[in-house]
Amino acid sequence: MANFIRGVLFFLAGFKYLGTKGLKRFIILPIGFNFLLFAGLYYLTTHFLLPYGYYYLNQLPAWLNFLSSLLFFFFLLSFLLFFLSTFSVFLNLIAAPFNGLLAEKVQLLFYHSAIPSLAFRTIALRSIKRQVQFLAYFLPRLLLLGVLFFVPFIHPFYPFIWFIFNAWILSLQYQDFAMDNNLIEFDEMRAQLAENKMLTLGFGTGINALIFVPGLNLFIMPVAVISGVILFCEQNKQVLKPIKKV
């Protein structure tokens, strides 16, 4: 449990670095991406989710009317978690080049460590490979959770299952920016996170919980990138390469 709390605290610590000199221009775009995420969530909720939810409730037999409010709550929460987990994952893939630059700058400013230098072609190929590897990891698990939605007795637990899944995936994504920058392979990254399950889950839970806090949620992406770099550097100081003095 101590490691879980450490993971949450690592994430929360990122907020105090948002105003760091030298980072501000790298933070603007991630905030813009997050704005798109929540604007999309609002649009889908008002134009699709609520009308469909009311239609779904109207199909319930009369003897289940007393459960309508509870079922609607679980339906709404399940959809929100589903949307946030899928849309935020794909938004992170689109924002990956910008978040990678932010992660590089954080490592340079806070730890005086430069990432390994590679040719542009090599970086591009690594980035494509990394995204394919992530999707191969994410999509089968997403499909499995989609199937579980149709298992009746799981419905009361479904939002909690989604929350844990989303926390793990977000933790993996945001810690991966620093790991990818430092040439740690995807399978090795997964192994490291699996060795520190509670730390990883605590970090992702902090991200996932604040997604639902209006105002603060706009800063989730840059804060999570900054925190992910700090977490990586604190856990892997032996691999950091100091800046070469000229």
Q: Name the beta content range.
A: under 5%
* Average pLDDT level: 83
Give the uncertain stretches in residue-range form.
none
Structural Rg: 20 Å
Shape: elongated
Number of domains: 1
Instruction: Please tally the helical runs, counting DSSP H or I stretches of 4 or more residues.
Output: 8
Residues in helix, %: over 70%
Number of strands: 0
Distance between the termini: 45 Å
Q: What structural category do the secondary elements indicate?
A: mainly alpha
Order of helices and strands: HHHHHHHH
* Quaternary structure: single chain
> Tell me about the biggest sheet?
none
Kindly describe this structure:
The protein is mostly helical and 246 residues long. The protein has one domain. 75% of the residues lie in helices and 0% in strands. The chain contains 8 helices and no strands. It is elongated, with a radius of gyration of 20 Å.
Task: Tell me briefly what this model is.
By secondary structure, the chain is mostly helical. It has helices spanning 2-13, 24-58, 68-111, 120-148, 158-181, 186-195, 197-210, 220-235. The protein contains 8 helices and no strands.
Topology:
Blueprint: H1 2-13, H2 24-58, H3 68-111, H4 120-148, H5 158-181, H6 186-195, H7 197-210, H8 220-235
Helix pairs in contact: 1-7, 1-8, 2-3, 3-5, 3-8, 4-5, 5-6, 5-7, 5-8
